[in-house]
């Protein structure tokens, strides 16, 4: 599941950036958007649930 590894890498990268902002809401929205994009890229969101 390459996309999951990519998601984890992106989450770490995003977490580093959001830590500087000090806004947990920003990180939450970032992760929700990222998951949505990944599900569209795969064309099948079943693996998320």
Supply the number of helical segments. 2
User: What's the alpha carbon Rg, rounded to whole Å?
Assistant: 11 Å
Beta-strand residue fraction: under 5%
Low-confidence stretches: none
**3D shape:** flat
- Total DSSP E strands: 0
The largest pleated sheet is described as:
none
Name the helicity range: over 70%
- Overall mean pLDDT: 65
**Which structural class best describes the helix and strand composition?**
mainly alpha
Query: Would you list the SSEs in sequence order as H and E?
Result: HH
Distance between the termini: 15 Å
Biased composition (Basic and acidic residues): 1-21
Region (Disordered): 1-23
Brief description of this entry?
This protein has 49 residues and is an all-alpha fold. It contains two helices and no strands. Residues 1-21 have a biased composition (Basic and acidic residues).
Keyword list:
mainly alpha; 49 residues
Characterise the protein shown here.
Residues 1-23 are annotated as: Disordered. Residues 1-21 have a biased composition (Basic and acidic residues). The chain is mostly helical. It is built from 2 helices and no strands. Helix 1 (2-21) runs antiparallel to helix 2. The model has no long low-confidence stretch (mean pLDDT 65).
What's the SSE blueprint?
Layout: H1 2-21, H2 24-42
Helix pairs in contact: 1-2
